[in-house]
TrEMBL record:
Pfam family, one: GGDEF
Highest taxon, organism lineage: Bacteria
Gene3D superfamilies: 3.30.70.270
UniProt cross-references to InterPro entries, sorted A to Z: Diguanylate_Cyclase (IPR050469), GGDEF_dom (IPR000160), HisKA_7TM (IPR031621), Nucleotide_cyclase (IPR029787), Rev_trsase/Diguanyl_cyclase (IPR043128)
Protein name from the UniProt record: Diguanylate cyclase
PANTHER family linked to this entry: DIGUANYLATE CYCLASE DGCM-RELATED, REGULATORY COMPONENTS OF SENSORY TRANSDUCTION SYSTEM
Organism annotation: Eggerthella guodeyinii
GO molecular function: diguanylate cyclase activity
CDD domains (alphabetical): GGDEF
Length: 383
Protein backbone atom coordinates (compact mmCIF):
# COMPACT_ATOMS: atom_id res chain seq x y z
CA UNK A 1 0.00 0.00 0.00
CA UNK A 2 1.53 3.33 -1.01
CA UNK A 3 1.14 6.57 0.94
CA UNK A 4 -1.58 8.01 -1.32
CA UNK A 5 -3.72 4.89 -1.05
CA UNK A 6 -3.25 4.85 2.74
CA UNK A 7 -4.41 8.46 3.01
CA UNK A 8 -7.41 7.82 0.75
CA UNK A 9 -8.40 4.88 2.95
CA UNK A 10 -8.01 6.74 6.26
CA UNK A 11 -9.34 10.23 5.44
CA UNK A 12 -13.04 9.17 5.25
CA UNK A 13 -12.95 7.52 8.73
CA UNK A 14 -11.22 10.62 10.09
CA UNK A 15 -13.95 12.89 8.70
CA UNK A 16 -16.65 10.60 10.11
CA UNK A 17 -15.00 10.62 13.55
CA UNK A 18 -14.84 14.41 13.45
CA UNK A 19 -18.54 14.61 12.64
CA UNK A 20 -19.36 12.20 15.49
CA UNK A 21 -17.29 14.22 17.94
CA UNK A 22 -18.96 17.51 17.08
CA UNK A 23 -22.37 15.85 17.10
CA UNK A 24 -21.68 14.36 20.53
CA UNK A 25 -20.90 17.80 21.93
CA UNK A 26 -24.23 19.08 20.68
CA UNK A 27 -26.51 16.07 21.15
CA UNK A 28 -25.21 14.02 24.08
CA UNK A 29 -25.58 15.17 27.71
CA UNK A 30 -22.41 16.01 29.64
CA UNK A 31 -22.10 12.73 31.55
CA UNK A 32 -18.94 10.82 32.42
CA UNK A 33 -19.87 7.94 30.11
CA UNK A 34 -20.22 10.30 27.15
CA UNK A 35 -16.86 11.91 27.99
CA UNK A 36 -15.28 8.45 27.82
CA UNK A 37 -16.94 7.83 24.45
CA UNK A 38 -15.54 11.14 23.19
CA UNK A 39 -12.11 9.98 24.37
CA UNK A 40 -12.50 6.87 22.20
CA UNK A 41 -13.44 9.07 19.23
CA UNK A 42 -10.53 11.50 19.77
CA UNK A 43 -8.05 8.63 20.21
CA UNK A 44 -9.26 7.14 16.92
CA UNK A 45 -8.78 10.49 15.19
CA UNK A 46 -5.29 10.82 16.68
CA UNK A 47 -4.33 7.32 15.54
CA UNK A 48 -5.63 8.02 12.03
CA UNK A 49 -3.62 11.26 11.74
CA UNK A 50 -0.44 9.70 13.15
CA UNK A 51 -0.84 6.69 10.86
CA UNK A 52 -1.24 8.85 7.77
CA UNK A 53 1.79 10.95 8.74
CA UNK A 54 3.83 7.80 9.27
CA UNK A 55 3.08 6.61 5.74
CA UNK A 56 3.40 9.98 4.02
CA UNK A 57 6.66 10.90 5.75
CA UNK A 58 8.21 7.41 5.65
CA UNK A 59 11.69 7.75 4.18
CA UNK A 60 11.43 11.56 4.04
CA UNK A 61 12.20 12.63 7.64
CA UNK A 62 15.07 12.10 10.07
CA UNK A 63 14.82 8.90 12.08
CA UNK A 64 14.01 10.81 15.27
CA UNK A 65 10.92 12.39 13.71
CA UNK A 66 9.73 9.07 12.31
CA UNK A 67 10.16 7.44 15.70
CA UNK A 68 8.10 10.22 17.31
CA UNK A 69 5.25 9.87 14.79
CA UNK A 70 5.09 6.09 15.16
CA UNK A 71 5.26 6.22 18.95
CA UNK A 72 2.28 8.60 18.91
CA UNK A 73 0.44 6.26 16.55
CA UNK A 74 0.88 3.29 18.87
CA UNK A 75 -0.02 5.29 21.99
CA UNK A 76 -3.25 6.49 20.35
CA UNK A 77 -4.06 2.93 19.29
CA UNK A 78 -3.64 1.73 22.85
CA UNK A 79 -5.67 4.69 24.05
CA UNK A 80 -8.60 3.58 21.90
CA UNK A 81 -8.70 0.11 23.48
CA UNK A 82 -8.10 1.34 27.04
CA UNK A 83 -10.69 4.11 26.91
CA UNK A 84 -13.21 1.71 25.32
CA UNK A 85 -12.74 -0.70 28.21
CA UNK A 86 -13.23 2.14 30.71
CA UNK A 87 -16.37 3.23 28.83
CA UNK A 88 -17.95 -0.23 28.87
CA UNK A 89 -17.04 -0.80 32.50
CA UNK A 90 -18.59 2.50 33.51
CA UNK A 91 -21.80 1.67 31.64
CA UNK A 92 -22.26 -1.69 33.34
CA UNK A 93 -21.10 -0.69 36.84
CA UNK A 94 -22.22 2.93 36.92
CA UNK A 95 -19.07 4.12 38.66
CA UNK A 96 -15.60 5.23 37.66
CA UNK A 97 -12.45 3.23 38.34
CA UNK A 98 -11.05 6.40 39.92
CA UNK A 99 -13.07 5.43 42.99
CA UNK A 100 -11.12 2.15 43.25
CA UNK A 101 -7.33 2.71 43.22
CA UNK A 102 -6.41 -1.00 43.25
CA UNK A 103 -8.79 -1.88 40.43
CA UNK A 104 -7.56 1.16 38.51
CA UNK A 105 -3.94 0.05 38.92
CA UNK A 106 -4.79 -3.45 37.65
CA UNK A 107 -6.73 -2.04 34.69
CA UNK A 108 -3.87 0.32 33.78
CA UNK A 109 -1.17 -2.37 33.96
CA UNK A 110 -1.48 -3.69 30.37
CA UNK A 111 -1.49 -0.18 28.90
CA UNK A 112 1.47 0.82 31.09
CA UNK A 113 3.49 -2.19 29.91
CA UNK A 114 2.44 -1.47 26.33
CA UNK A 115 3.43 2.21 26.65
CA UNK A 116 6.84 1.37 28.10
CA UNK A 117 7.55 -1.06 25.24
CA UNK A 118 6.53 1.56 22.66
CA UNK A 119 8.40 4.47 24.27
CA UNK A 120 11.56 2.38 24.48
CA UNK A 121 11.35 1.33 20.82
CA UNK A 122 13.83 4.01 19.59
CA UNK A 123 16.52 2.35 21.74
CA UNK A 124 15.42 -1.29 21.97
CA UNK A 125 13.95 -1.69 18.46
CA UNK A 126 11.56 -4.15 20.09
CA UNK A 127 8.15 -3.03 18.85
CA UNK A 128 9.41 -1.29 15.71
CA UNK A 129 12.46 0.43 14.29
CA UNK A 130 13.48 2.78 11.48
CA UNK A 131 16.04 1.22 9.15
CA UNK A 132 18.96 2.89 7.40
CA UNK A 133 16.69 3.88 4.53
CA UNK A 134 14.44 5.76 7.01
CA UNK A 135 11.64 3.21 6.54
CA UNK A 136 9.39 1.78 9.28
CA UNK A 137 9.98 -1.88 10.16
CA UNK A 138 8.26 -4.19 12.64
CA UNK A 139 10.36 -5.44 15.56
CA UNK A 140 10.29 -8.80 17.34
CA UNK A 141 7.86 -7.37 19.94
CA UNK A 142 5.46 -5.89 17.40
CA UNK A 143 2.75 -8.20 18.79
CA UNK A 144 2.75 -6.43 22.19
CA UNK A 145 0.59 -3.41 21.20
CA UNK A 146 -1.90 -5.67 19.40
CA UNK A 147 -2.04 -8.10 22.32
CA UNK A 148 -2.65 -5.31 24.86
CA UNK A 149 -5.34 -3.76 22.67
CA UNK A 150 -7.03 -7.11 22.10
CA UNK A 151 -6.98 -7.79 25.85
CA UNK A 152 -8.91 -4.59 26.61
CA UNK A 153 -11.39 -5.07 23.79
CA UNK A 154 -12.06 -8.73 24.65
CA UNK A 155 -12.41 -7.88 28.35
CA UNK A 156 -14.97 -5.20 27.48
CA UNK A 157 -16.84 -7.69 25.28
CA UNK A 158 -16.90 -10.33 28.02
CA UNK A 159 -18.16 -7.73 30.51
CA UNK A 160 -20.94 -6.60 28.19
CA UNK A 161 -22.05 -10.17 27.39
CA UNK A 162 -22.04 -11.18 31.05
CA UNK A 163 -24.26 -8.30 32.11
CA UNK A 164 -26.49 -8.78 29.08
CA UNK A 165 -27.20 -12.33 30.25
CA UNK A 166 -28.50 -10.87 33.53
CA UNK A 167 -30.50 -8.02 32.00
CA UNK A 168 -34.20 -8.23 31.11
CA UNK A 169 -34.77 -4.70 29.79
CA UNK A 170 -34.84 -4.77 25.96
CA UNK A 171 -33.14 -1.38 25.63
CA UNK A 172 -30.28 -2.30 27.97
CA UNK A 173 -29.91 -5.73 26.35
CA UNK A 174 -29.72 -4.13 22.91
CA UNK A 175 -27.15 -1.60 24.07
CA UNK A 176 -24.99 -4.25 25.74
CA UNK A 177 -25.10 -6.31 22.54
CA UNK A 178 -23.84 -3.32 20.55
CA UNK A 179 -21.05 -2.87 23.10
CA UNK A 180 -20.05 -6.52 22.78
CA UNK A 181 -20.11 -6.30 18.97
CA UNK A 182 -17.52 -3.49 19.04
CA UNK A 183 -14.79 -6.13 19.07
CA UNK A 184 -15.68 -7.41 15.61
CA UNK A 185 -14.29 -4.41 13.70
CA UNK A 186 -10.82 -4.11 15.27
CA UNK A 187 -10.27 -7.86 15.66
CA UNK A 188 -11.17 -8.68 12.05
CA UNK A 189 -9.19 -5.67 10.88
CA UNK A 190 -6.23 -6.70 13.02
CA UNK A 191 -6.28 -10.26 11.66
CA UNK A 192 -6.33 -8.96 8.08
CA UNK A 193 -3.53 -6.50 8.75
CA UNK A 194 -1.40 -9.21 10.38
CA UNK A 195 -1.96 -11.48 7.40
CA UNK A 196 -1.40 -8.72 4.85
CA UNK A 197 1.47 -6.47 6.01
CA UNK A 198 1.27 -3.03 4.51
CA UNK A 199 -2.53 -2.98 4.42
CA UNK A 200 -4.32 -0.66 6.84
CA UNK A 201 -7.49 -2.41 7.95
CA UNK A 202 -7.42 -2.01 11.75
CA UNK A 203 -8.33 1.67 11.98
CA UNK A 204 -11.17 1.57 9.44
CA UNK A 205 -12.54 -1.43 11.37
CA UNK A 206 -12.28 0.48 14.65
CA UNK A 207 -13.96 3.53 13.10
CA UNK A 208 -16.85 1.36 11.91
CA UNK A 209 -17.29 -0.08 15.41
CA UNK A 210 -17.24 3.41 16.94
CA UNK A 211 -19.96 4.52 14.51
CA UNK A 212 -22.14 1.54 15.45
CA UNK A 213 -21.59 2.23 19.16
CA UNK A 214 -22.51 5.88 18.69
CA UNK A 215 -25.66 4.97 16.76
CA UNK A 216 -26.69 2.68 19.63
CA UNK A 217 -26.19 5.54 22.10
CA UNK A 218 -28.37 7.83 19.99
CA UNK A 219 -31.06 5.16 19.69
CA UNK A 220 -31.08 4.32 23.38
CA UNK A 221 -31.42 7.96 24.41
CA UNK A 222 -35.16 7.32 23.91
CA UNK A 223 -35.26 4.26 26.19
CA UNK A 224 -32.67 4.96 28.88
CA UNK A 225 -32.44 7.58 31.59
CA UNK A 226 -29.75 10.06 30.57
CA UNK A 227 -28.52 10.75 34.11
CA UNK A 228 -28.19 7.23 35.52
CA UNK A 229 -28.06 4.97 32.45
CA UNK A 230 -30.89 2.86 33.83
CA UNK A 231 -34.10 2.16 31.95
CA UNK A 232 -36.46 5.14 31.93
CA UNK A 233 -40.14 5.35 32.85
CA UNK A 234 -41.31 4.49 29.35
CA UNK A 235 -39.18 1.36 29.31
CA UNK A 236 -40.50 0.42 32.75
CA UNK A 237 -44.11 0.76 31.59
CA UNK A 238 -43.39 -1.42 28.54
CA UNK A 239 -41.61 -4.03 30.64
CA UNK A 240 -44.39 -4.21 33.24
CA UNK A 241 -47.01 -4.55 30.52
CA UNK A 242 -45.04 -7.39 28.92
CA UNK A 243 -44.54 -9.19 32.24
CA UNK A 244 -48.20 -8.86 33.13
CA UNK A 245 -49.18 -10.32 29.74
CA UNK A 246 -46.79 -13.27 30.11
CA UNK A 247 -49.22 -15.46 32.05
CA UNK A 248 -47.30 -18.62 31.11
CA UNK A 249 -44.53 -17.79 33.57
CA UNK A 250 -44.94 -19.50 36.93
CA UNK A 251 -42.09 -17.59 38.54
CA UNK A 252 -43.23 -15.25 41.33
CA UNK A 253 -42.16 -11.70 40.71
CA UNK A 254 -42.66 -8.32 42.30
CA UNK A 255 -42.26 -4.61 41.68
CA UNK A 256 -40.08 -2.73 44.17
CA UNK A 257 -40.26 1.07 44.36
CA UNK A 258 -37.42 2.94 46.09
CA UNK A 259 -37.21 6.59 47.08
CA UNK A 260 -34.21 8.52 48.43
CA UNK A 261 -34.80 9.78 51.97
CA UNK A 262 -34.32 13.52 52.51
CA UNK A 263 -33.23 14.03 48.92
CA UNK A 264 -34.35 17.66 49.02
CA UNK A 265 -31.89 18.39 51.83
CA UNK A 266 -29.01 17.07 49.69
CA UNK A 267 -30.03 19.42 46.87
CA UNK A 268 -30.54 22.39 49.22
CA UNK A 269 -27.32 21.95 51.18
CA UNK A 270 -24.86 20.74 48.53
CA UNK A 271 -26.41 21.92 45.26
CA UNK A 272 -28.09 20.27 42.31
CA UNK A 273 -24.82 18.80 41.03
CA UNK A 274 -24.52 16.87 44.30
CA UNK A 275 -28.15 15.82 43.93
CA UNK A 276 -27.43 14.42 40.48
CA UNK A 277 -24.42 12.57 41.86
CA UNK A 278 -26.61 11.15 44.65
CA UNK A 279 -28.98 9.71 42.02
CA UNK A 280 -26.05 8.21 40.12
CA UNK A 281 -24.79 6.80 43.43
CA UNK A 282 -28.09 4.99 44.02
CA UNK A 283 -28.12 3.74 40.43
CA UNK A 284 -24.59 2.35 40.91
CA UNK A 285 -25.70 0.67 44.14
CA UNK A 286 -28.66 -0.95 42.37
CA UNK A 287 -26.38 -2.24 39.60
CA UNK A 288 -23.98 -3.63 42.17
CA UNK A 289 -26.70 -5.24 44.32
CA UNK A 290 -28.51 -6.89 41.40
CA UNK A 291 -25.45 -7.67 39.26
CA UNK A 292 -25.94 -11.44 39.57
CA UNK A 293 -29.69 -11.39 38.91
CA UNK A 294 -31.95 -10.69 35.94
CA UNK A 295 -33.63 -7.76 37.71
CA UNK A 296 -35.02 -4.93 35.57
CA UNK A 297 -33.74 -1.59 36.93
CA UNK A 298 -35.34 1.75 36.10
CA UNK A 299 -35.48 5.34 37.21
CA UNK A 300 -39.13 6.35 37.40
CA UNK A 301 -38.41 10.06 37.71
CA UNK A 302 -37.06 12.45 40.33
CA UNK A 303 -35.58 10.39 43.15
CA UNK A 304 -37.82 7.36 42.61
CA UNK A 305 -36.44 4.10 41.26
CA UNK A 306 -38.02 0.76 40.43
CA UNK A 307 -36.86 -2.85 40.36
CA UNK A 308 -38.77 -5.71 38.76
CA UNK A 309 -37.46 -8.77 40.55
CA UNK A 310 -37.99 -12.52 40.39
CA UNK A 311 -37.85 -13.41 44.08
CA UNK A 312 -38.78 -16.26 46.35
CA UNK A 313 -41.04 -14.81 49.01
CA UNK A 314 -40.90 -11.78 51.26
CA UNK A 315 -37.60 -12.81 52.79
CA UNK A 316 -35.97 -12.85 49.36
CA UNK A 317 -37.07 -9.27 48.75
CA UNK A 318 -35.81 -8.15 52.16
CA UNK A 319 -32.42 -9.73 51.51
CA UNK A 320 -32.25 -7.96 48.14
CA UNK A 321 -33.01 -4.61 49.80
CA UNK A 322 -30.37 -5.29 52.45
CA UNK A 323 -27.92 -5.80 49.56
CA UNK A 324 -29.01 -2.46 48.05
CA UNK A 325 -28.45 -0.62 51.34
CA UNK A 326 -25.05 -2.27 51.82
CA UNK A 327 -24.05 -1.41 48.24
CA UNK A 328 -25.27 2.17 48.76
CA UNK A 329 -23.06 2.52 51.82
CA UNK A 330 -20.05 1.07 49.98
CA UNK A 331 -20.63 3.27 46.94
CA UNK A 332 -20.91 6.37 49.14
CA UNK A 333 -17.60 5.56 50.79
CA UNK A 334 -15.76 5.00 47.51
CA UNK A 335 -17.14 8.25 46.10
CA UNK A 336 -16.30 10.08 49.36
CA UNK A 337 -19.73 11.71 49.33
CA UNK A 338 -20.24 14.35 52.08
CA UNK A 339 -23.69 12.94 52.81
CA UNK A 340 -25.05 9.51 53.73
CA UNK A 341 -27.87 8.26 51.52
CA UNK A 342 -30.67 6.00 52.66
CA UNK A 343 -33.77 4.74 50.88
CA UNK A 344 -37.33 3.80 51.67
CA UNK A 345 -38.77 0.88 49.76
CA UNK A 346 -42.07 -0.83 49.16
CA UNK A 347 -43.07 -3.71 46.96
CA UNK A 348 -46.07 -5.49 45.50
CA UNK A 349 -46.41 -9.02 44.10
CA UNK A 350 -47.96 -9.73 40.75
CA UNK A 351 -51.01 -11.92 41.17
CA UNK A 352 -54.75 -12.28 40.72
CA UNK A 353 -55.52 -9.17 42.78
CA UNK A 354 -52.65 -7.15 41.26
CA UNK A 355 -52.47 -8.19 37.62
CA UNK A 356 -52.24 -4.84 35.81
CA UNK A 357 -49.17 -2.53 35.75
CA UNK A 358 -51.03 0.44 37.23
CA UNK A 359 -52.24 -1.71 40.13
CA UNK A 360 -48.73 -2.89 40.89
CA UNK A 361 -47.34 0.64 40.72
CA UNK A 362 -50.02 1.99 43.03
CA UNK A 363 -49.59 -0.82 45.58
CA UNK A 364 -45.75 -0.65 45.58
CA UNK A 365 -45.82 3.15 45.82
CA UNK A 366 -48.23 3.00 48.76
CA UNK A 367 -45.99 0.48 50.54
CA UNK A 368 -42.94 2.65 49.90
CA UNK A 369 -44.58 5.72 51.46
CA UNK A 370 -45.60 3.63 54.47
CA UNK A 371 -41.94 2.62 54.89
CA UNK A 372 -40.86 6.26 54.53
CA UNK A 373 -43.31 7.33 57.23
CA UNK A 374 -42.02 4.61 59.51
CA UNK A 375 -38.46 5.79 58.92
CA UNK A 376 -39.44 9.34 59.90
CA UNK A 377 -41.11 8.12 63.08
CA UNK A 378 -38.02 6.14 64.03
CA UNK A 379 -35.89 9.25 63.51
CA UNK A 380 -37.95 11.28 66.02
CA UNK A 381 -36.38 11.67 69.48
CA UNK A 382 -37.82 9.26 72.01
CA UNK A 383 -39.42 10.71 75.14
Amino acid sequence: MNAITYVLVDVPPFIVMGILYVNSLVRLPYLRENSLLRTVILSTMGALVAGMLSWVLDGRLPAEALYAVNVLHFLFMGGIAFSWFLYVRYLVHGESLLCKPLALAIACAPYAAFAVAVLCAPWTHGVFYVDEGLAYRRGPLSFVPFAAGALYVLAATALALFYRSKEEGPARRRRLLYLAAFAVGPLVGGALQAALPGMDTVLPGIALSVVLAYVSVQRDELALDGLTGLNNRGSLDDHLAARCRATRSSRPWCLIVLDVNDFKSVNDRYGHAAGDDALRQLAAALKRAFAKTSAFLARMGGDEFAVVLDARGEEGVRRALDDVRAALETTGQTRRAPYALSVSAGWAWHGADLERPEQLLEAADKAMYADKQLSKERALPQR
